[in-house]
Amino acid sequence: MSPRPLNVGLVGGGRGAFIVHPHQKAIHFDGTRRVVAGALFPDPKIALEEAAAWPYPIKGYGSYDDMIAANKTLPEEQKLDYLLIVTPNFVHYDPAMKAMKAGIAVFCEKPLCLNLKEANDLVRTSRKLGVPFGVAHTYLGHWTSRLSRYIVRSGLLGEVRWVDSYYIQGWLATKLEATGQQQASWRVDPKRAGGSGCGGDIGTHALMQLRYVTGLDVTQVSAQMETFVEGRQLDDHFTIYCKLSNGGKALVRASQICIGHKNDLGIAISGTKGTLRWRQEEPESITIHLANQPDRVYWRGAVTPGDGFLPKDVPADLMAEPTIPAGHPEAFHDAFARLHRCFEADVRKWKAGEKFNIDGSKYASIEDGWMGIAFIETCVKSSQKKGAWTAMPKKI
Ligand SMILES: NC(=O)c1ccc[n+]([C@@H]2O[C@H](COP(=O)([O-])OP(=O)(O)OC[C@H]3O[C@@H](n4cnc5c(N)ncnc54)[C@H](O)[C@@H]3O)[C@@H](O)[C@H]2O)c1
Q: Distance (Å, rounded) from C-alpha 160 to C-alpha 2?
């Protein structure tokens, strides 16, 4: 008999919410996971109304406290296997902590939480309790991100000297928050977003992409966090010059005031032998330039290990990842689905009492989430000192 689908509970997602929708599609992608419950809104009455209006039947709760408490008494078939946290940043720590303590695995949106104190607590608790915890850094779920990681780590580009990792948007080029726009309002409020606006929101994605693809860490930063829109409390432009753990350098940059740029996340990695370039708005291919050779473009679904350029040992699990044939485009939802699929595998191992190893190779780990928060706090310190080189804290 095939195992029952995993049961997922949502924290957040009612009334005009954004990121819950790609997630809920991704959860249902394979038929092996399903959304069964939700605490969708801070006001209990509205939370219940929103759950009743959900496009398929789910059990509504007035709060995540109620949802977590009720889980104890549910029959095994109905118990939550993991909680998906899709609330603004200031409502990550509390539900994550409570879920872990109740023995429910957690998949949490980025940035992990508001500050390093919260991040330390979350990491220590997850280690102590051994509960699976993933962080939703979407873009490493692209098949091509995974291939890029393999290519860079295989040494094809030589030693990495320079990385340009960026996420450029234009939607906050005006004071959108003054109109009451939901997603803008909390992102520019330090109490709800954390110590950085643009950096926390999308700079953390650029950092994660750099770390995921290269395997390198940022050791020191020289940060310029700027606010172009008058009266805004947090940065809307984030430019960070970085020293890397192998002695290389990088630029991690993000902006929300560059009109015309939509979700322009990309990475260019230059090593001693070549350069690899990838952009999430065209995520189906990777371009590789080796010195004195024609450029090569690799398309998802059309890669043959041992083709004379790529070694034979392209990871077997990468080649086996379910994808559709090349030319039928995959994108954002597929990336999310890949993250949930890999998280599901770890949650199933955990439930079966088997060993699982969340090493950040399939989705961002809680330590990766911690690194995002540590990066932001270090950038804030450096920026306050006019860009003075500032060391990242010791890894937790
Ligand atoms: N991974 C990505 O690509 C990506 C993209 C966008 C947003 N995000 C992250 O996802 C999170 C949500 O962002 P969004 O743009 O969807 O925000 P949003 O404002 O659109 O949605 C947030 C939801 O949380 C609900 N909420 C707030 N407090 C709550 C509480 N106490 N209990 C229950 N529900 C509550 C709101 O009512 C709303 O439904 C943020 O942390 C953001 O950084 C990630």
A: 45
